[in-house]
Design goal:
about 800 residues, alpha/beta, eight-stranded mixed beta barrel, five-stranded antiparallel β-sheet, 23 strands, about 55% helix
Length: about 800
């Protein structure tokens, strides 16, 4: 079928609504000499058109109320309101001056107002949107009523002969021309958009324009007069068609939207159900809280309560910092707040504390939640408990490379960093007389000295580019890259600092402490043996510092260290690390019930080398923790195949080293003979970072293992520690036992320890029992167990 083009449709519209009606009107003026008088038919045409106009105008304003924008359709609707009112009253009056006046006012006002379609669209308030059509409706109604009530004021619209006056023709002609001008707007829009509605309004305005122009050529009730009435009727019908079309499209749109909403509601209901299931599942696996803009808790899920041990009432309204662990750096929380306040999501790992004080680790995601305006209203925190993962993942080892007491890098980190530098330059700074303060005032006092000295070193040397470590006890190491500093400058910086320390006084618990330090310096050696040798020489000669030189390597001690360092490495590489087992005798049952695992190494000739030759050296290298793992494996193996309790020595360094602690826990986890495994904590080395040590001990005791405190009576002996660590045994140091038969002071100390142990349900084990006389004294003191050469020497096997 032939399809009209856009231009053809426009041409056809202009032809049928303007050209053809005008030609028909002119033809009727010459050849249509007949009159048809019918007031009812006339009233029908005008009333029908008026009702269509008013209805359409009302629909346009109502349907577009939500936009509050006055468009060309709104301005056309205002014109139709004016025409509709005038034509409605026109249809109700008898022919005459008033009859023609109301019709002419409809054409004139309609044409003028339709001409405003050329104005730009503009936004109005809700009040103005309602007032404008109401105002025009009111004005036209009042004008019509005044004209009807006071007809004497109506201008002359008919001549004595019954023809229209010039004024009547003027009003209609002006109105008609304005309609034609308005049609140009719709023609322009149609050519731009090809919208069918613009084509309809083109025909609509041209019909009204043609009717206004033909008025000039007509007389009341003649053929031309009826022609332009019919044209106006068709123009109104176009408006009615537009109204019906618009109404139909709106209904279809509403129906479509209704179906879409129903579909969306169904989909939403399904999604809500899915979300509810997701939330339920998420609540099962995640620890969730919601915080306000200040970080105070607004909501917590059941998992949060279960994990932390708090009740809902105890958490809601409290700051999230309630859960914070003091070890977490403040910088982390500053970064967290800066991130979420800017609207970004923050991810990180945190260490928290439960209500009980127990630590737990989480992966935390904090998501800022926004309102419809994009403003942050609250923060959603989603956590995953990774406590077990922390204990099992090597990559998290770096979390344990910091000395908790001082917050400096620890020995493990030092040994790692030294391998990364080809020629490190290091200095070991050791406090003089530290043990005196520690023994006299207690370990807590000593810890405060360590902390303050660490702060001083950090304050003075870190700005100069030094990496700072706490090596062990009261010894610190500072390191730089040799290629970044001259030898003399390094010596000058370190010597200046040592002089500063030696003139420094700190106050702890109202006690003034005069600091004193010695220092060893080593250039270009990637181990601590050389700096340790220099430090010992500085202490021996009472110098502020000694720089390592090759002359020091000629000392017997140095040569001995080098010798056993090589033997130790070869022993580990060739599986020549062995264990011997020394029996422990029950003084009450008079039988062997336990064995202690003792580490040994073999040289190239399989000759046994004892720990006093290599243990300290191993701690200056990365081999120490490897020795610990080997002896633990051997001890556990013996415990699995015998009925005796097997003791294994560990130190605080083992516990604080992540890999070693993880190895111990993973080794004992799940074994069914853990009650026969005793870990002896070497107390003489000092129990530092007490909270971490206690946490570790609680963990291994939960698997059934027992704890013994070794070498008690020397070093940092502390009765309070025994209670807090929940020890099962006290091993009284051999230095107190070996002369107990003839040293009254030692006897008194052991008697005090034994009495304390009985009152606190602790078992006592005496070491270095080398004679019957010593053993008799132990019976006398009611000691529980004895160990020493008189009981039995270490051997490769456990004898039943």
């Amino acid at each position: 079928m032939y399809k009209l083009s856009t231009d053809s449709k426009l041409f056809f519209t202009i032809l049928t609504t303007l050209v053809f009606p005008i030609l028909l009107g002119l033809w009727l003026q010459s050849y249509g000499n007949f009159r048809f008088v019918s007031l009812p038919f006339h009233s029908f045409l005008e009333a029908t058109g008026a009702i269509s106009a008013l209805t359409m105008a009302l629909i346009v304003f109502v349907m577009h109320y939500h936009t509050l924008i006055v468009t060309a359709y709104h301005r056309a609707s205002i014109a139709l309101i004016s025409m509709g009112v005038f034509d409605a009253f026109h249809s109700m009056v008898y022919p005459g001056e008033l009859f023609v006046w109301l019709h002419s006012m409809a054409v004139f006002s309609g044409g003028i107002l339709f001409g405003t379609v050329w104005f730009n669209d503009f936004r109005v308030s809700k009040r103005k949107y309602t007032i404008v059509p109401t105002l025009f409706l009111t004005i036209t109604v009042i004008t019509s009523l005044i004209s009807i009530i006071f007809p004497q004021f109506v201008p002359q619209m008919l001549t004595k002969e019954g023809a229209f006056t010039n004024f009547a023709n003027f009003l209609n002609l002006v109105g008609g021309v304005m309609f034609v001008i308005a049609s140009f707007y719709y023609i322009k829009k149609y050519l731009e958009t090809h919208n069918r509605d613009d084509l309809l309004f083109t025909g609509h305005t041209l019909l009204f324009g043609t009717a206004g122009i033909l008025f000039f050529f007509s007389n009341l009730w003649d053929a031309q007069w009826w022609l332009w009435h019919i044209l106006r009727f068709f123009a109104y019908m176009i408006a009615l068609y537009f109204m019906v079309k618009l109404f139909h499209e709106t209904l279809m749109e509403i129906y479509s939207v209704k179906n879409e909403y129903e579909h969306m509601n169904n989909a939403l209901a399904n999604k809500l159900q899915s979300l509810e299931e997701y939330k339920k599942a998420y609540d099962e696996i995640s620890i969730i809280s919601v915080g306000d803009l200040k970080g105070n808790i607004k909501y917590v899920n059941a998992n949060m309560l279960k994990t932390t041990g708090y009740t809902k009432d105890e958490l809601v309204g409290m700051p999230h910092s309630l859960l914070r662990d003091k070890e977490t750096p403040k910088e982390l929380f500053i970064d967290m707040w800066n991130t979420i306040k800017s609207g970004d999501v923050w991810y990180g790992m945190l260490k928290n504390r439960k209500k009980s004080g127990e630590a737990f680790y989480i992966n935390l995601t904090i998501i800022p939640l926004h309102d419809s305006n994009g403003k942050i209203i609250e923060y959603l925190g989603v956590r995953t408990d990774i406590t077990e993962l922390i204990k099992s993942k090597k990559e998290l080892k770096k979390q344990f490379n910091t000395d908790i007491l001082t917050s400096l890098f620890n020995r493990s980190r030092l040994l790692e960093d030294m391998l990364k530098i080809e020629k490190p330059v290091i200095a070991a700074i050791n406090l003089n007389g530290f043990k005196t303060y520690n023994d006299f005032f207690g370990s807590s006092f000593g810890d405060e000295i360590i902390i303050k000295v660490g702060d001083i070193i950090l304050e003075k040397l870190h700005p100069l580019g030094y990496s700072i470590y706490r090596n062990h006890a009261d010894e610190f190491i500072v390191m730089k890259n040799y290629s970044e500093i001259s030898r003399q400058k390094y010596i000058d910086e370190i010597s200046t600092f040592v002089k500063y320390i030696n003139n420094k006084k700190v106050t702890i618990d109202d006690e003034d402490v005069d600091l004193s330090a010695s220092c060893g310096i080593s250039f270009g050696y990637a181990d601590v043996l050389h700096v340790d040798l220099a430090l010992k020489e500085a202490k021996k000669s009472k110098s502020n510092y000694i720089v390592y030189n090759e002359l020091l390597t000629t000392t017997d001690e140095y040569m001995n260290n080098i010798k056993y360092s090589k033997i130790l490495k070869k022993a580990i590489d060739s599986e020549k690390v062995i264990a011997q087992y020394q029996p422990i005798y029950n003084l009450h049952t008079k039988s062997i019930e336990k064995y202690e695992t003792l580490i040994r190494i073999l040289d190239e000739d399989d000759k046994i080398i004892y720990p006093n030759n290599f243990l300290d050296i191993s701690k200056q290298t990365r081999l120490y923790h490897e020795l610990t793992k080997r002896v633990i494996k051997k001890g556990i193996s013996i415990a699995s195949s015998s009925s005796f309790e097997i003791s294994i020595n560990i130190t605080a360094d083992d516990i604080l080293d992540y890999e070693t602690a993880e190895f111990i826990i993973n080794t004992i986890k799940g074994i069914n003979f853990a009650n026969r495994v005793v870990f002896e904590l070497v107390e003489s080395e000092g129990i530092e970072n007490f909270s971490r040590v206690k946490e570790f001990i609680s963990t291994i005791k939960s698997y059934g293992c027992k704890i013994a405190i070794d070498d008690f009576g020397t070093g940092y002996s502390n009765f309070d520690y025994l209670i807090k660590l929940e020890a099962d045994y006290i091993k009284i140091d051999g230095s107190l036992i070996k002369n107990i038969d003839n040293d009254k002071s030692h006897y008194a100390v052991v008697e005090t320890i034994a009495e304390f142990a009985r009152k606190n349900s602790l078992k006592t084990i005496a070491e270095f029992v080398h004679s019957k006389e010593v053993l008799d004294k132990l019976y006398e003191l009611n000691i529980d167990y004895a160990q020493g050469f008189f009981i039995g020497k270490p051997s490769k096997e456990v004898k039943s």
